[in-house]
Specification:
flat; mainly beta; single chain; about 50% strand; about 600 residues; Immunoglobulin-like
């Protein structure tokens, strides 16, 4: 196929290829005189729509041309080309059309060329002047902007299309970095309603907003902001091997290690230390971890050779290669004399879960470093197991079972790890576990101002212990008796309102029991009431979603400028509430919302009702 011709034309021409190319080169210049004059007498190309005149003016951003072409040997095809960009093949030949040719502002010179089957051409042209119509109406703001992290380096955006009186031509996308950032910067434009923001930083929060642009470059208001965080980039690179591992014996029981720090693409978080015993050993076992580049290996045997190696790991738990091995030998232990047995071991149960132990100190030729305590369960048990070590001569064994007998023994250890003989055994039994007290009773929920109120719960202890009462959330006008649990008092007119979350608790000194929380409303003697209803809030003042609505506060009074009475509603599900106990006269009401952090909204509009 030869450039400039439709597919298939060259296949049925009956002329040599070189001759055919010569005609095309002559025709491509657009000069009628360069080709045989078949159009001059028997052929032509004419632009007849939208005008036959050589110029045309429009305020529409595109133009559709149409016309006719003729030749004695037949018209092969018709092409158009604009000096402001764009070209194409027209539909049809003898009657042709070129629809929706896009125009640029100003003058657009469009040339239409017809070719016969020998490649000869003829042209007609039209000058189209495009003036953009005046458009001062901005598009609507895009809606429902969504941002979703697709990887550690990409966040995908989508939004609802904006609308415009003439037509939306595209969208401007802006971004800032940080969960609360406000310094937005344009990062891209888009013609559709989606965009993929790539080359981002892992583990980072970004905020986005978008607005629409129309043909006249009017910009809309911004969409709501959308936030997304990229996950941290995966770390698959292991640290380097530590270097220069050194091992130095400082006593018969201790070898000190030091090594050169490893490096990592993200950061080294620690080192794993391994040890085996013997000058040529290879069966290494991990003995410790370290965050620095030194470690003291204690509790070793005197006169023994140890080998060590160390490797690093990073935050992604990638393990690096091992350091070269290092060897050290502890000197023989100088102390082979065990301490004496501790004396006077005593065991005393202090509760159902605790036994306290005391013993006489042991002695040693060098010095006692600690004691090993062993225990078994049962009055005649012999299967002792070590439960702890201690440096002093007392220990509190907690977490025991009530009503159980335990036996204990203890022996001393010196600096050379020599263990002494056991002390005599000591036995103690824990008392049965304490049972919690029981409390019951149901308080009234309302009291009329000026009327006495009293409530005493019923409580008992299955172990017969002395009980003590306490109260939380009691109204200010009431008194409470800690010996009986009695809550009583006489509220005044100024105490009208609701007290919620009153909890009475009883204790035997160890265990507790509480009544369910209850509310107590003080009402006036009048019987007037007002039913308030409202719509729950869904957003905050900055336009973000309200996700932790916790309740409401109703304020009311008989002076619109001083609503001195209030009711707290600790439920986000309420949308109405009946305020009772209103006296005759005009009453005013307003309501505000509270979130879980205690932040309160501005009050609503003030409503009123007249009580007759």
């Amino acid at each position: 196929m030869i450039a400039g011709l439709p597919v298939g034309i060259a296949a049925w021409l009956r002329v040599p290829v070189s001759f055919f190319i010569t005609f095309l080169l002559l025709a491509s210049g657009g000069e009628a005189s360069a080709a045989p004059s078949w159009f001059s007498r028997t052929g032509s190309v004419v632009i007849s729509a939208p005008v036959t005149d050589p110029s045309y003016a429009t305020t529409v951003g595109s133009v559709s041309l149409a016309g006719t072409a003729s030749s004695t040997v037949g018209v092969a095809w018709v092409m158009w080309r604009s000096d402001r960009g764009g070209s194409g093949v027209a539909t049809g030949t003898r009657s042709w059309s070129a629809p929706n040719i896009q125009l640029a502002s100003g003058v657009n010179n469009i040339v239409v060329t017809a070719y016969d089957f020998f490649g000869r051409s003829r042209q007609d042209s039209v000058s189209v002047t495009y003036t953009s119509p005046t458009d001062t109406t901005a598009p609507t703001a895009p809606g429902s902007l969504g941002a979703t992290a697709a990887s550690s380096t990409q966040i995908n955006l989508s939004w609802d299309a904006a609308s415009d009186s003439v037509g939306v031509t595209g969208y401007v996308i802006e971004r800032c970095e940080g969960a609360s950032c406000a310094s937005f910067t344009q990062i891209a434009t888009a013609t559709g309603t989606t965009f993929s923001n790539t080359d981002l930083v892992g583990g980072t929060t970004y905020r986005y907003r978008v607005r629409a642009r129309d043909v006249a470059n009017n910009l809309s208001a911004y969409s709501p902001t959308a936030t997304a965080s990229t996950p941290a980039a995966a770390d698959a690179t292991a640290p380097t091997a530590p270097g220069s591992l050194g091992a130095t014996a400082t006593s018969s029981t201790q070898i000190n290690l030091s090594w050169g720090a490893a490096s990592d693409s993200v950061g080294v978080t620690g080192y794993a230390l391994e040890q085996c015993q013997g000058a040529s050993c290879t069966s290494f076992t991990q003995i410790a971890t370290a965050t620095s580049t030194t470690f003291s290996n204690t509790g070793l045997a005197g006169g023994t050779t140890y080998r060590y190696r160390v490797r690093a790991w990073d935050a992604a738990n990638n393990l690096g290669a091992y350091s070269p091995a290092a060897t050290a030998t502890t000197p023989a232990a100088a102390d082979t004399t065990a301490p004496t047995a501790p004396g006077n071991l005593g065991a005393t149960a202090t509760s159902s879960t605790q036994i306290n132990l005391t013993w006489g100190a042991a002695s040693d030729s060098v010095g006692v470093t600690g004691y090993a305590l062993e225990r078994c369960q049962g009055a005649s048990c012999t299967n002792f197991t070590q439960i702890t070590t201690a440096t002093g001569t007392t220990f509190s064994n907690t977490g025991l079972t009530g009503g159980t007998t335990y036996r204990y023994r203890v022996r001393a250890r010196d600096a050379a790890n020599n263990l002494g003989a056991y002390s005599p055994t000591a036995t103690a039994a824990t008392p049965a576990a304490n049972r919690p007290p029981v409390i019951s009773g149901s308080s009234g929920t309302t009291v009329v101002a000026g009327t006495a109120y009293a409530f005493t719960p019923t409580a008992s202890d299955p172990d017969g212990q002395t009980l003590t009462f306490s109260v939380m959330g009691a109204p200010a006008w009431a008194t409470f008796n800690t010996a009986t649990g009695r809550l009583n008092g006489t509220p005044g007119v100024g105490d009208v309102g609701l007290t919620e979350g009153i909890v009475i608790t009883v204790s035997d000194g160890t265990a507790y029991a509480s009544l369910p929380a209850f509310s107590l409303a003080v009402t006036q003697s009048a019987s007037g009431s007002a039913l308030l209803s409202w719509l729950p809030p869904t957003t905050r003042e900055d336009g973000s979603a309200l996700t932790n609505l916790a309740g409401y506060r109703i304020r009311y009074g008989q002076n619109a400028a001083a609503l001195t009475l209030s009711v707290a509603l600790n439920s986000s599900a309420l949308t109405s509430y009946l305020v009772e106990g209103l006296t005759a006269g005009r009453w005013y009401f307003s309501i505000s919302a509270l979130d879980a952090a205690g932040v309160e909204s501005d009050p609503s509009n003030t409503g009123s009702k007249t009580i007759l």
